[in-house]
UniProtKB/TrEMBL annotation:
Superkingdom, natural source: Eukaryota
A family per Pfam: Vps55
Subcellular locations according to the entry: Membrane
Name of this protein: Leptin receptor overlapping transcript-like 1
Protein source organism: Vombatus ursinus
Membrane topology designation: Multi-pass membrane protein
Keywords: Membrane, Transmembrane, Transmembrane helix
Organism placement in taxonomy: Eukaryota, Metazoa, Chordata, Craniata, Vertebrata
Nucleus keyword on record: no
Length: 102
């Protein structure tokens, strides 16, 4: 029974961490002091990140030798999207994007 508990604990902790991260993102955008909603563009990356891997899983036959290359490309694209989700707020902070419209 102990072997079945570990995957559930991992899934629960990952979902809890994701929910906390989204909550902080929403709270950070809603603060009246800053009044900046540009960081919400990160949500597009959260939505787009699983799409390449889901497409690759649908297209790939497990017995095919090329399936490994397709999955690796999908993982590479997913990694690029996730890294972009971290990089976009840094670019926004460096570009002073919000100061033009204030």
């Amino acid at each position: 029974i102990a072997g079945y508990v570990q995957p559930y604990n991992t899934l629960i902790s990952l979902s809890f961490g994701g929910a906390i991260g989204l909550m902080f993102l929403m709270l950070g955008c809603a603060l009246p002091l800053y009044n900046q909603y540009w960081p919400l563009f990160v949500l597009f990356f959260y939505i787009l990140s699983p799409i390449p891997y889901c497409i690759a899983r649908r297209l790939v036959d497990d017995t095919d030798a090329m399936s490994n290359a397709c999955k690796e490309l999908a993982i590479f694209l997913t990694t690029g999207i996730v890294v972009s989700a971290f990089g976009l707020p840094i670019v926004f902070a460096r570009a002073h994007l919000g100061e033009r419209w204030m």
